[in-house]
Write a structure and sequence with these properties.
CATH architecture of the largest domain: 3-Layer(aba) Sandwich
Mean pLDDT: 87
Structural class: alpha/beta
CATH class of the largest domain: Alpha Beta
Helix content: 40-55%
Distance between the termini: 95 Å
Low-confidence stretches: 1-8, 175-179
CATH topology of the largest domain: Dna Topoisomerase Vi A Subunit, Chain: A, domain 2
Oligomer: single chain
Shape: elongated
Radius of gyration: 33 Å
C-alpha cells in the first residue's frame, strides 16, 4: 500500500498517533523514518533493528497486529505502518505522523545548500574589504574560514558578527593616534549597540585579527586583550603592556634618548606601549638578541654591563609592546637572533619569530637541546606538541625524551655568546 493519502482526505489525530507510535519502544522506528525523510530518502522499504528487546518486539506486534516473534532481529515494513495509521484514522501518511510526534521534518539538503550559500556570501563580503590586501587581514579571513569558526557562527545564528568584525577593523583609528576612540563608541558606530564589543562573538573575532596584525598570540587575559585594543588606537591603560630591554640604542626623541642613556650605563630599561605609540623609534642596531627570561637580562647587566649586545626580553609570550618594538627593529634593518625555552610553547614562539621577523634561531638546535638535557632538574614537556622547521630533529628529539629545559638553566652558555659578540663589536 502507498504511504500517501488515498482518495479521500484525512486529518491527523495526534492522540491516536501518540498511542500507535509514541511509545519509547518505537522511538527507534520514528527516529529512522524522520532521518530518511530529512535526507530525502524513500520511505517505502523496510527498517531493521538488530538486537531488539522483547518489549520492542511486542510494541511492533501491537502496531502491526501480528505475533511479535522471538528473533532479536526486528524488521518493519514502512508501507505496512502507513496502512495501519490510515486504517486507524490516525494519520494520512508517515510524514504527517512523524511531524505530529516531533514537529516539522527538516530538509537537510536544502539547509546545506542555504548554509553553503550563506557561507559563500559572508566570505565574499569580508574578502571585499579595503583591508583585503593586508597580509594579516588575509590570514585572518583564511583562518576563520578554514578552522570552522565561520561555519559554527553561521549555525549558531551569529553570521552577521563576521561582517561586523570586518567593519570594526576598517573603522579602527590610526595606530599613531592612540586613544582616539573607545569601545562603546566604536561598537555603536558599527552595530548600533554600544555593548557589542564587550561580549558575544564579535570581540573575539576582532581580537584574533588584531593579534595577527601585531604578531602576537591570541589573547588569553583581559590585560592582553586591552593591549591589543590600545595598539589599534582604542582608549585604555596603555602602560600595562611593557617590554624589557638592555643596551638598545635608537634614534628619536624622547624614547631614543632614554634608551641611549640606559644603554650607556648598561642598565635594563622597560618601555611601555604608550611610549612606543606616542614616539615610534628607529633602532640603530645591526644585530639584536632576543631571550624569554628576565633572569638572563639581569645576569647580562651584572656580568657584561654596557658591553653586552642589544637584548630584548619577551618574558614568555610576546606582549604587544614587545611585538611593536621587534617590528620596529626589523623595519630599521636589524637582524633578530631568537632564543626561547626548549618547550612546546618555546618552539611555537620561535616559529612565529622566524615567520614574522625573519629571525635566526640562537642556540635552538638539536645539539643545543641534547647538551641541555644532560643537566639536573629537567622539566617534563606539557601542552600541545609543536614542530621545529629550522631543525626538524629538535622537535623529534623532544618528543622522544619528553623533557623540556627552561631558559634560566641555559644562562651560562647564552652569556658566553653575548660576551663573545660584545668583544667583537
Amino acid at each position: 500500500m502507498s504511504t500517501s493519502v488515498p482518495a479521500r482526505q484525512m486529518s491527523v489525530d495526534p492522540a491516536k498517533v501518540q498511542r500507535m507510535l509514541g511509545s519509547p519502544e518505537l522511538s527507534w522506528l520514528v527516529d529512522r523514518i524522520r532521518g530518511r525523510l530529512e535526507r530525502g530518502e524513500p520511505i517505502d522499504g523496510t527498517l531493521t533493528l538488530v538486537g531488539a528487546t522483547p518489549s520492542q518486539r511486542r510494541a511492533a506486534g501491537r502496531l502491526l497486529g501480528r505475533h511479535p516473534g522471538r528473533s532479536t532481529t526486528l524488521s518493519i515494513s514502512l508501507p505496512a505502518v502507513a496502512a495501519e495509521l490510515w486504517r486507524a484514522a490516525a494519520a494520512p501518511n508517515l510524514i504527517s505522523a512523524v511531524e505530529a510526534l516531533g514537529g516539522p521534518v527538516r530538509n537537510l539538503a536544502a539547509e546545506r545548500a542555504a548554509g553553503l550559500q550563506q557561507w559563500g556570501d559572508v566570505l565574499s563580503e569580508v574578502r571585499a574589504s579595503p583591508l583585503a590586501n593586508q597580509p594579516w587581514y588575509a590570514e585572518w579571513v583564511d583562518t576563520i574560514s578554514r578552522d570552522g569558526t565561520m561555519t559554527r557562527l553561521l549555525r549558531q545564528g551569529h553570521g552577521d558578527s563576521i561582517g561586523q568584525a570586518a567593519a570594526v577593523l576598517e573603522r579602527l583609528p590610526s595606530t599613531t593616534e592612540p586613544g582616539s576612540t573607545d569601545l562603546p563608541t566604536l561598537a555603536a558606530a558599527v552595530t548600533g549597540n554600544e555593548h557589542a564589543l564587550a561580549d558575544g562573538p564579535l570581540p573575539g573575532l576582532v581580537l584574533r585579527a588584531l593579534a595577527l596584525r601585531e604578531g602576537v598570540g591570541i589573547p588569553n587575559s583581559s590585560e592582553t586583550e586591552q593591549a591589543l585594543w590600545i595598539a589599534a588606537g582604542v582608549a585604555g591603560d596603555d602602560v600595562a603592556s611593557q617590554v624589557l630591554v638592555l643596551n638598545l640604542r635608537a634614534h628619536g626623541e624622547p624614547v631614543g634618548r632614554w634608551l641611549n642613556e640606559a644603554a650607556g650605563g648598561g642598565q635594563p630599561f622597560r618601555l611601555t606601549l604608550r611610549q612606543l605609540l606616542a614616539a615610534p623609534v628607529q633602532l640603530a642596531e645591526p644585530d639584536i638578541y632576543v631571550c624569554s627570561s628576565s633572569a638572563l637580562v639581569m645576569a647580562a647587566a651584572d656580568e657584561l654591563g654596557a658591553t653586552c649586545p642589544p637584548l630584548i626580553c619577551t618574558e614568555g609570550d610576546t606582549s604587544v609592546a614587545c611585538a611593536r618594538l621587534l617590528q620596529a627593529a626589523v623595519a630599521s634593518g636589524s637582524s633578530v637572533h631568537w632564543h626561547s625555552d626548549f618547550s612546546w610553547a618555546g618552539l611555537r614562539r620561535t616559529q612565529l619569530a622566524i615567520k614574522r621577523l625573519q629571525a635566526q634561531p640562537w642556540r635552538m638546535s638539536v645539539s643545543d637541546y641534547q647538551a641541555a638535557i644532560t643537566g639536573p632538574a629537567i622539566d617534563p614537556l606539557r601542552g600541545r606538541t609543536e614542530s621545529s622547521p629550522w631543525d626538524p630533529r629538535l622537535a623529534e628529539m623532544m618528543r622522544l625524551t619528553g623533557r623540556g629545559v627552561n631558559e634560566e638553566r641555559l644562562i651560562s652558555g647564552l652569556l658566553d655568546d653575548l660576551a663573545a659578540q660584545g668583544h667583537m663589536a
